[in-house]
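Example A, followed by Example B.
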Amino acid sequence: MNRLRGLAALGAMLALLAGPAAAGGSDARAAAVLQDWYGLVLQLVRHTPTYSPPVASRSFAYLGVGAYEALASGRPGMASLAGQLNGLAMVPERSAGVDYDEAVILQAVMAEGVRDFFGNTGPMGQRAMGVATERFAAAAAADVPEAVVARSQAYGTALAAHILDWSEADGALPIVNMGFPLEYALGTEPGSWVPTSLVQQQQVPLLPAWGNVRPFAMAHGGACPLPPPPAYSEEEGSEFHREALEVYDTVRNLTDEQRAIARFWSDDPMLSPTPPGHWIAIALQIFDRDQPDVAFRADTLARLGLAMADSFIGCWHAKYEFDLLRPITYIRAHIDPDWEPVLITPPFPEYPSGHSTLSGAAATVLTAAFGEDFSFIDATHERDGLPGRRFGSFHEAAEEAALSRLYGGIHFRAAIDRGLEQGHCIGDHAVSLTMAQTP
């Protein structure tokens, strides 16, 4: 049923793309290009088989940098990220003394980037990208002289090629077998992760080398280290056993509200825009509501994408350092053999919680952008039948997202609390970048 809803959503996107193109001033056209492309990307993430959360976060980072540089190349108040991000060399410059159009440049950058990152999506996604490229290009170029359009498109294409060349050297590719290695030796220590799924592909963990991918704003995957989790123990009364009992008792006594929270933040691949897409969706909803200028949007989306991509690199670096088993494995072996979690346990080690690290990083960036105690309604999943939720701040939302994994029965308390701390550290790296000066 969820899969059918996803296909219906993509069909609705196609219908929208076929509608009339809106015109306006340069800033308005550029903001529309940014918003429209990101809206489509959220749908493409749902329908591209290799798009696990770490992979999705990587694409959001590169697309965000490309969009930001498209504007920064012509605005003195926006500093380039070249030299600030690992491996990003000086980007191509615009020619002096001639006119460019920001919306057209931005359109070219996004079209090239999305086509590259989602080249393996299915037929409906391919069709959506084709329609989007045509319609968004027409809207971006409305009332712009042909010579300026041609010059701007050429520059945007060159800028996109620079970003894509940079991306190819980060160590993330190729992603084969949907990210599950063809050979992998499982840990043999007590408490080591073991498979929790009967699916043959998932008898090895997802993307075990992702912690070695080149990060963006932080120096390396271990830049925000964590203390070890509680020492593994099967003794009743030990700290580890107490944490397992907390998961067990919480799931057995869930309130309706807690169950709803677990479902709201589940964000399963192929059934949602994934957890990083959820936070992108939150930003887009706020943009729709508050209509900030395009420089602020590009700055925020770039920082958010960078922080989320680094959060998965940092989180995965720790996950495979500690290689901890999941609650379902421990509880069934030592507490209750018939116990069932609410959510399906993801196929990779437990500590720390990816939702926690991601959400802590995202909340840190969005709080820096919009301020403390910034209230909003998150309606990301309304199309999937889940009502929106109101939050008084981004950190409140992050804490709920993190706790949702306890309610779902897939994380211990230490992974949740320390994951949030790790996320705050990683988010600070993105916040510290010198970027746009325009609020």
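Example B, a separate protein, is given below in the same form.
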Amino acid sequence: MKAKIIDVMREISAESELQLVSELDDCTVLLESGLDSLGFAILVARLEEELGYDPFSIMDEPVYPRTLGEFVSIYQKFAP
């Protein structure tokens, strides 16, 4: 899951001419990753297309992940 998310982040950064930080790991703060708010919206939409679900629309209480690790955990927790 983590590798898939990072691959999609890299695709979006290349398409949008954004520069991701060189080392993406669980502690990477999302707001400091290099993607902007539009990039994250595209990321969630693209992941929904590729994975078949959007965990943010499934969860009862909205959670806003701070790090890449938290973001990945949300996708793992709500995987069908």
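On Example B: Residues 2-77 form a domain with the Non-ribosomal Peptide Synthetase Peptidyl Carrier Protein; Chain A fold (CATH 1.10.1200).
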